[in-house]
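Changelog note: in this version the structure field was regenerated for every chain. One regenerated record is shown below for reference.
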Amino acid sequence: MKKKEKDSRINAKYISISEYAIFFLVLAAFSGFHMWIYQEMEKNNIFITNVRLGIVILMSYVMLMAVLATVIIGFLRDRSLMLPMIKLSEAARNISKGDFNVRIAPLRKDGKKDFVDVMFEDFNTMVKELSSIETLKNDFIANVSHELKTPLAVIQSYTNALQNKSLQEKERIEYIQTILEATQKLSVLVTNILKLNKLENQKILSESMPFNLTEQLRQCVLSFIELMETENINFEEELDEVSVCYDKDMLEIVWNNLLSNAIKFTNAGGSIYLHLKSQPDMNQNSIKISISDTGCGMDDDTKKRIFDKFYQGDTSHSKDGNGLGLALVKKTIDLLGGTITVDSMPGQGSMFTVYLKNTI
């Protein structure tokens, strides 16, 4: 049987030396009292002349010691076991009612930790994590509700306007186009939510197949060429010929979102650069894919939250997205065992760099 490892945080005994000392001193005091009675009896020749009385007194002393030991042990048990269980039960009851601000203070005042204090510490950590999850869930629901309401309100408003029989044909076409844009935004939002939910709950990845990563990147760029020409954005690429063995559809999510993001934040006349390099690493061959732009850039606070769901650092572009694209990118890269970094400064553009293992 494997020996259980001791928790390194525990640096105190279950019952302290001071508590043992108190128990010993109390028993010693009663023993001294008994000896004093015995000496008094011996002086008065009571014990010698009345053996039965001596036996009764001795038995009374033994019973008294047993009662005293039971009381002290019961007190120590209540202090070391029952009191913590009561505190833990009360805290769990409050959490079940939705109060995630509950914390249990350590019982020891000497700064050391026994099993109970470590249990309280782990309990507080668990509650903190539950509180964080509850906050994320509430924020997610609030953000989804807001993002759904906006296009739905547009659809409802313009559909009602289309019922006006005196509406001009030009206005009717504009209203229909607005409704189509709102439905497309709604469709993208729902699709991204479903994709993100699938990725967050995905335990087993789809079977990886070898494919040409360079060709996949070129195909993704081609789907955005018309948009870049319309926005008057210059595009440059420098691609090594690289093949990998990954889930092709999952990586396509990454490139489409990063390219879309670069276009969204690059003004007319700006540039986007795509680089693919197969570079040897100290431990393994690695692949570096970077997508950079000359757009508005980001400050440090924005960079810290850029991969959070529904977060949009530049609110002037909020109508062009829903804040889920980069969250999808980060989750996908994490599942594939890669890493992603962002380098950006306000007014100097942004560069997203993806590192993948060379799987072939």
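Spot check on this record: Residues 315-319 have pLDDT under 50 and may be disordered. The longest helix spans residues 115-162.
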